[in-house]
Design brief:
This protein is an alpha/beta fold. It is built from eleven helices and eleven strands. Strand 1 (52-55) and strand 2 (58-61) form a beta hairpin. The protein is flat, with a radius of gyration of 24 Å.
Amino acid sequence: MELKINWSDFPIFLAVVNAGNLSGAARDLGLSQPTVSRRMNALEEQMGIPLLQKTNTGIAPTEMGLAVLDHIRRMEHEAEAITRATAASDQSLAGTVTISATQGVGDMWLPEAMRPFHVKYPEIEFIIDVNIQMANLAKREADIALRWMGPGNQNSLIGRKVITLGIGLYASKCYLEKHGCPKTLEQLADHSAVGIRMSRTSPLWPINLNDLSIVPQKISFLSNSLRTQEEAIASGYGIGALAHLQAERQDGLVRVLPDFEHLQDLWIVAHDDLSKNRRIRLVFDFLIKVLQKDQEYFLTGKSKKSVAL
């Protein structure tokens, strides 16, 4: 008897395995949990074998499920390659380019920086995805990504370190007048801090500064927004880490322990296939030029942002 399988159920199986549960897969797929459960039951019935099993931590593939997953992932990779090849063959200067970036770069820098490009190429539309999560470029979640700390480990990426960001410790004048100014890193332990947690796994204090191990006595204000953190420091909640360019925007901020500085590199990354797309390549090259022109602004916050090339 010929085996008839609904191929559209395979991505659902993959999503369940990736999420480790039905509810997470439903959320990722934009479906209801009963729909995901029904589709998985149908797939297992069609194949005549169990693909999933319950564990202490959730749902995991059976031995046969693992074998099927290998084939599904190969199918997924081939489908992604076809999509990228199609996009790479598009040499039109009309269409969208999606840029993935974190807060600070994506919301406070990119709109103004890309304005000259928009004037020159008005038929190219920008989609700016401001997200702490790293976009999967192989799956075309974005065409170009601006990433801190490194290009990532996804295969077939082209990446280039373009600028370095300078970060220091800051507090408001009113906070320092009331609590005093620390003279050493060790004295930070006697102060309140303004913390930021961009994701569930990121550290609280002060951001990702691995070269700063002193922990203040308490986190008096915590948020998941760079702009909110900046306003909280300016309002006098405590000492916090800010990019120098952020501090320059605020009146009444004082740099604390000016000998301390953390440097963070920004990389621009694209998938090698998509770099052959004319409009993506134009945006990629433009971003490199305007970022490099704004290097001093990112490093010290003293110079003005570039508005044209």
